Amino acid sequence: MNLNQYIDHTLLKPDASPQAIIKLCQEAIKYEFYAVCVSGCYANLAAEQVELSNVKLAVTIGFPLGSSTSEAKVHEARIAVEQGADEIDMVLNIGFLKAGLTEEVEEEIRSVKSVMGEKILKVILETCYLSNSEIATACKISEKAGADFVKTSTGFGTGGASIEHIKLMKQSVGDHIKIKASGGIQDKETAITYVNAGADRIGTSSGIQIVSG
Length: 213
Hints:
CATH architecture: Alpha-Beta Barrel
CATH class: Alpha Beta
Largest sheet: 8 strands, parallel, barrel
Helix content: 40-55%
CATH topology: TIM Barrel
Radius of gyration: 16 Å
Strand order of the largest sheet: 1-2-3-4-5-6-7-8
Structural class: alpha/beta
Strand content: 15-25%
Number of helices: 9
Mean pLDDT: 97
CATH superfamily: Aldolase class I
Number of strands: 8
């Protein structure tokens, strides 16, 4: 198993510096990770760093709370793509989902996807705040709205990925869309367990540690 090609090498800390983003990109190129994942303000910088490599650029929107307006998320996505993003990691509106406003959640996801062309959309569910039935619902909504991935966590909630949630997400979407596990994955054994449970991608700031064993 080439774990490096499952990894989105991630730096989303609020105090991340331009120098740290450059280092992240250089590491991703060196270790041949699938992608780097950065905040929107660093899309341009990261795009320049990985431009001549095989490393993809993932950019977060509506991050980390998911509670910005749909219009803001759409605008963020459009800008990120214009600046070189290959993928968007978007936090869905958790409050709306929990309130049963499923049509609004679905329409938001669809609106974001509509401005992305062929780029990949990952919808972050923030599973730590959801019941199993809400996770299943969020997966179905994301699939219906045209998302390419459902993703467990931002890493900024009360909890990260869990094997139970990955299995539940896999049951919900089957092979129709993909799954990204993120939040708290820090070693090789854990990463392999998530991949075996159904994860197609691993979001982590511990990528080097994972591939180095």
